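Researcher: Please predict.
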Amino acid sequence: MNTPKLFFVTWLLTFASPSLLAADISVSDTIIVSATRTEIPLDDAIVPVKVITRADIELSLATDLAELLRFEAGIDIGRNGGPGQATSIFLRGTESNHTLVLIDGVRINPGTLGGAAVQHIAPEMIERIEIVKGARSALYGTDAIGGVINIITRQADSPYVEAGLGTGSFNSQTGHVSAGTRGDAGEFSASINWQDTGGYAPRVDSDIETGYDNLTLSLSAARKFGASEIGIRHWQTEGNVEYLDFFLSPLDQDFKNAATALQIDSRISEQGNSKFIVSHIVDEIQQQQSPDFVKSTRISLDWQYTHALENHTLTGGVYLVDENASSLSFGTGFDEDTDVRALFVQDQLKYGRHSAFVALRLTDHETFGNQTTWNAEYAFDLSDNWTLNTGLGRAFRAPDATDRFGFGGNPDLNPELADSAQFGLRYAAGNRHKFDIEFYANDIEDLIEFDFATFTLVNIDKAEIRGVQLGYEYAGDSFTLRTEVVEQRADNATTGTRLLRRTEQSATISYTQNIGAHRLGLAILASGDRKDFGDRTLAGYVIANLTGQIQLGDSWQLNARIENLFDKEYQTAADFRMQERSGFVELKYRWR
């Protein structure tokens, strides 16, 4: 099926399905934290929020976070080949470093390279993923121009043990063990995940294959003391990735990413709650064929107090950061320290059919001075099923150390400033039918782009992003169907040229079917063409993944995935191959 045909089928399903499938079930009770920094029901979020559940993750048999995200509407993935290769996220047309990635609320975007290393995040340690679309700098500070991806790690809700072994194409092997327990006094859980693959040839102009190995550890422990709970979490991933340099020479590098956090939750009163998080992150790459390296460390203190009134939920707090970024490349490098201080306050209001959210953040950045960011959002329930929502926001991103002092760096760069707006209409009949249409716009001043005339990074006057997303979801008794279409433009407003590696059209179809205790899944992505460096145009494509779970008794499960079912040749970054048709299987044991 070609790309235009799939766009048509998706639009047809979006409009036709509500009249073909009529039923109703109870309202969703999913609780999220990323949209407002507080726990709220998913249905109460004014801004668009998508949740990828543990069940979705297990059925996908994905090997990294990027594979989970690529079938989500409004997210474009740019990947330099196969497993472990450099991967970028473009959320709603914004830059690859405009999406803030959190692990249990802790920022893991490095201070050196901007975007988080999503290619190294193993799905086996993830309980769910919350994707908040739209500016969120008022809540989280720099980088959250396009949105926020919050990864919630697995924690035990009851005693369990889980283990799995997998194998597949490209001489790939995987293994994981997870266990945990929870009682009245606290919780403990641990997960370890191992992945090794011989890989495939990532460059279209070379037959050299590149391998990858990854060892991931996740630990979580919590203890209750009266009205307080003290918890500690640690996540780290490390390994080696082989790649080809500009001259097609085979190289390899070791990597390590880690985040450790101590969290104290305290009930101050019937209405008041305090949350205190102190965290430390490490993002490190060490080149094996030379002394070159990149390293980022960050110590953060994030405290907030939330007070619930009859119609308001007030939240305020402070955020302190001490960051170091260092690098050595081709004999030159940098070693930069940066301090950030911020105060924030917000209010969630609920009056009958009216809902509102306002947030304000004052940031004192050591390098770029004071920045004020804000969000103002409003929703009105037209009826029990229909809701109108709208929102405005101001966000910013401070140039990182590589932007200023790395290859092509420019120490005179200004921060990127973004003004965003969105308007939407949602329909929900319980949890059976869900329909939404969302219009969004984002004007980014001083967008940082690479100037090939001077081989340096520069601020351009303005970038304009305009888009619309249409989606429909039906949850039946034994199956779920979800279809989404995105039409957007992301342009340099000065020259009128398209920004690189974003598609203007995309469509997704996701279908899952329960067959007794077994499950079958089909995910289809159609992506339009995209521009890349050197005035290259990458052709559009349609790919499909087929997945399945066969239950072998009460404790054993056989999982399988066929990647790129139609064996489509395509690229998301110029001259880098994407995965051909391939297969993977996993045998899993679970005890509860």
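Model: DSSP finds five helices and 33 strands in the chain.
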